[in-house]
Every structure is written in C-alpha cells, then in structure tokens.
Amino acid sequence: MRTPTDFSDDLDPLNGDHSNVFGPELGEFPHAERRASESAGDKEMKTGTTTVGIRADDGVVLATDMRASAGYMVASKDVQKVEQIHPTAALTIAGSVSAAQSLIRSLRAETSLYEARRGENMSMQALSTLVGNFLRSGAFFIVQPVLGGVDEEGPHVYSIDPAGGTMEEDYTVSGSGSQYALGVLEQDYGDDLAVDEARTVAARAIKSAVERDLASGNGINVAVVTADGVEIDRRKDIEELL
Amino acid sequence: MQGQAQQQAYDRGITIFSPDGRLYQVEYAREAVKRGTASIGIRTADGVVLAADKRSRSPLMEPSSVEKIHKADDHIGIASAGHVADARQLIDFARRQSQVNRLRYGEPIGIETLTKEVTDHIQQYTQVGGARPFGVALLIGGVENGRPRLYETDPSGTPYEWKAVSIGSDRGEIRDFLEENYREDVDLDAGVGLALRALAEVSDENLTPEGIGVATVDAESEQFRELPTDELEGYLSEHDLLASDGDGDEVGE
Predict the structure, then answer these.
(1) Average pLDDT of chain B?
(2) pTM for the full model?
(3) Strand, helix or coil at B16?
C-alpha cells in the first residue's frame, strides 16, 4: 500500500533543513550551549599569548609569539599560533589550544567545501560572518582570534571576540600581551604601509609584548597574506625582522 | 514491522526507471510544464528581464492574483511555468535559502548557488519513494557581483544557464524567435522590448498590460523590480504591440 506520509523521514518535507544555519555544514558542535554557559562562569579569560593583525596597502600581516603557558609554567616553547584557513586568509589564536585547533579544522573544512560547491573562494565578509557564527554557538567560547585575509575588495582585518562579535579594523591585537603590542601599533601604524613595513611594525609590537608579558615569548610567527596566498615565517629571534 | 516495511519499499516509489532507462513521472511532469503559459527570461549587458504571459480565463478574475513572477530576494526574481501550487513551494524554498545565505555568510546568495540549491531539492523528488516530482519549471534571474545571470530549472532537477530562454507553452516557437533576434550587448530597455515581442509572437491577439507581467533586476542597483501597469503600457505601445480597446487584431493579417 502506498502511504504518502512515509517518505517524510527521508525527504525533509519542503522546508529544507534550516536547523543548522549558524553551525557548520559538516559535523556539529555538540553541547555548545552548555559549554558556553560553563565558560561564562570563569570571570577571568586567560589567554597567555600576544597576537596582532595589521592591514597593509595590498596585504595583511598577522603575527604572534610562540609560547604556550599553563599557569606560571611555559608549556611549550615552539607553538604556531597563526594558521592558514583559506587560500588567502589566516587566523591567529589566543586562548584555549583545543578550542583553537578545533575551530581551525572546522573553518578549513567549511572554506574548502564552499569553494568546491561554488567554484569561488569565500569573501572576507563571508568568512568573518562564519567565524562569528561559530563562536556565537558557544562551542569555542574561550578563543579570541584575529582574522586577516585578502579578497576581491582588497585586504581586511577583523577582531573577533570570544562571544562571536566581529569588528573590522585597520589594526588589532589579542591575548594577554595585547596592551603592550597595542601601544606600539598606536605609534607606528600608518595608513599606507607597504606589506614589508607592516611586517616590521608587527614584529616590533610582538617584541614589546614579549619583553613585558610573562605569558608571551619564545620567538615570533609572522603570516603575510596577499592575493597570491599565505606565507608563514617562524623565527626564534625577533631581531631578524626589525 | 520494520522488516515488513522494507520488503514493501520497492513497490512504493513512483519514480522507477522504465526498462529503457527513462523516468516516466519526470517526463509527465515536463508535460505539465508545457501546458503552463509561457515565461521568458532575457539576459542583457546591464540586467536580467523576466516576462510572463498572465492571461486569465475570465475577466472576472483579478489579474494581480495570477502569480507568475516572484521576488526571491532583493537581487533575484523567479518566473514559473506549470503548476502554480508547486511553484509556490519552490519559491518559498528559494526565499528561505536566500536568507539562510545572508545569516550564514552575511552576504546575498549567488544566482548559481541558489539555482543549485533549488535543483538539488527538486532532484530529491525524482528519487524518493512516495514523492511526486514538481510539475513546474523556473527561470531564476538576478545579479551577482554586478554580473547578470539567468538560469532554468526543470522537473528533473537539472540546472541550465541561458542568455535567453523560455519555459511553458510555445517554447520551441519562442526559442526560434529569440535565437533570431537576441543580441548580447543590448541594454535592459531593449531586453524588455525583446521579451514582449517574443510574447506577442505566440499570442493570437495583441497584448494588454494586465495580461502580462515583467520584472527586471538591474545590474547597477542589483534590485528586483516589477514593472507597473502604466510602464508596461508604454513599452507595449512603443513596440506597437498594444491591443486597442475591444479587439486586438487591427494590426491586420
């Protein structure tokens, strides 16, 4: 006997599946809300790190220190805290390592899937909205990334707060050493920096933080993003970039 | 219970291949599209035109209640041919997908992306037991990053991109006319004129502004706009297609 109602389980009846608008197209973020509410209980957000992002004339420079800290101990002396997440975009991470690694894996999957389906890369508007949506879900509540990338419009830098707020900036910072770095950027940032100049400014900002912030140190990672792609440089000695 | 349901499952699908590899239900759905009044899409250098034959069977019917052209999002219009009720479901699906893209990525959906979302949805109804295919074809026209795009969907769920196309009745005749008269570099005004002349080509009488519907998506403003009746009247008289009061065949022949 034919019963037209039987297919409703297989075929989402006419509505399409919109339950997951703010989540990933691939996989899911289990217990995101519960985790968010638990994190919100921690008044103090510990992000032993310094990361900076600068928009230059035809590219973006992102830089971070290389220290992972656990309380007053240096947990690792060689950490990469800026990762490519898109052919012309990278993300710096401050905060929980597990959350950041998971966020980066999810973003790489989403940008690849988007490109495969649509035949073009996500714009920075799309990518920043996606990162904001992911953080807003609560699944990655303890990260404070800086997003930088280049699209058809040109270079963009976004400051993203742990709750998913995204703000486009000319230059921005995150992490425990951010105030030291920001002081340098306020002095040295200019409107029409070339990429090379921006790289030097970023290195100076990281150096300032490394000198005075206990939880930052052990070298520098610099990602330069241009329309041609992302290049990440790792130096134990910051002086080489000054 | 579960086992029994599965044993019967082969019998439940109405979209089953014939021995020579055809899906009869999908082909019948295409017939349903052919019985619908025509809709036409034209892509020009500075926008997309959608035009539809909205003739009603009775003067008592309110012309505005004949739904052939729909706004899907600010920058996308959809014209349909075939079962109006089926079209409404797909158009609502398209509207929701358009908003999902804005929520997810903070930007308007691409025309190709939306078309493929819709055709993937249509395709499911050719493969799942108990379903009936959509008896409707759509023209999805819009502007994406300043570029006009025009797509067709059919009941099998295949997307096609066109420079100029028609769906519904007299498709062959209109296609011949468009192949003869289409120019890629004309402006939006000329595109509207071409669409109206194509409609008139297959119409027994001259056209009335109430009996047609035209909408455009301009490449510069990226906005969907349905042309009001007085504007349509202007286009019709400009191209000498306007029916005079009473009868419509004073043009002769």
Answers:
(1) 90
(2) 0.86
(3) coil
Domain assignments of chain B as residue spans, ordered by start: 24-252
Is B244 an interface residue toward A (CB < 8 Å)?
no
Over residues B172-201, mean pLDDT: 97
Q: Which residues does chain A have within 8 Å of residue B120's beta carbon, measured at their own beta carbons?
A: none
Contact (CB<8Å) B104/A129: yes
Confidence of residue A120 (pLDDT cuts 50, 70, 90): very high
- Looking at chain B, the number of H-run helices and the number of E-run strands are 7, 10
Is B97 within 8 Å of A16 when comparing Cβ atoms? Answer: yes
Chain A residues touching residue B128 (CB < 8 angstroms): 7, 10-11
What CATH topology corresponds to B24-252? Glutamine Phosphoribosylpyrophosphate, subunit 1, domain 1 (3.60.20)
| Structure confidence by residue, pLDDT tens digits, B113-168 | 999 999 999 999 998 877 899 999 999 999 999 999 999 999 999 999 999 999 99
Residue B7 in this model has a pLDDT that exceeds 60: no
Residues contacting residue A25 through CB under 8 Å, at least 6 positions apart: A110, A113
Question: What are the start-end ranges of the H helices in chain B?
Answer: 2-12, 24-34, 84-105, 111-124, 171-181, 188-201, 229-238
ipTM exceeds 0.90, yes or no: no
Alpha-carbon distance A76 to B157, whole Å?
54
C-alpha–C-alpha distance, residues A20 and B94, integer Å: 17
Active-site annotation holder among A3, A47, A49, A88:
A49
Instruction: Give chain A as a 3 state SS string.
Output: CCCHHHHHHCCCCCCCCCCCCCCCCCCCCCCHHHHHHHHHHCCCCCCCCCEEEEECCCCEEEEEECCEEECCEEEECCCCCEEEEECCEEEECCECHHHHHHHHHHHHHHHHHHHHHHCCCCCHHHHHHHHHHHHHCCCCCCECCEEEEEECCEEEEEEECCCCCEEEECEEEECCCHHHHHHHHHHHCCCCCCHHHHHHHHHHHHHHHHHHCCCCCCCEEEEEEECCEEEEEEECCHHHHC
| Distance between A210 CA and the closest CA of chain B, angstroms | 36
Is B104–A3 a contact, with Cβ atoms under 8 angstroms apart? Answer: no
Q: What are phi and psi of A234, to 5 degrees?
A: -120, 120
Residue linked to tokens 């006319």: B177
Cβ A22–B112 below 8 Å, yes or no?
no
As to burial, measured by CB atoms within 10 angstroms (0-12 exposed, 13-18 middle, 19+ buried), residue A97 is middle
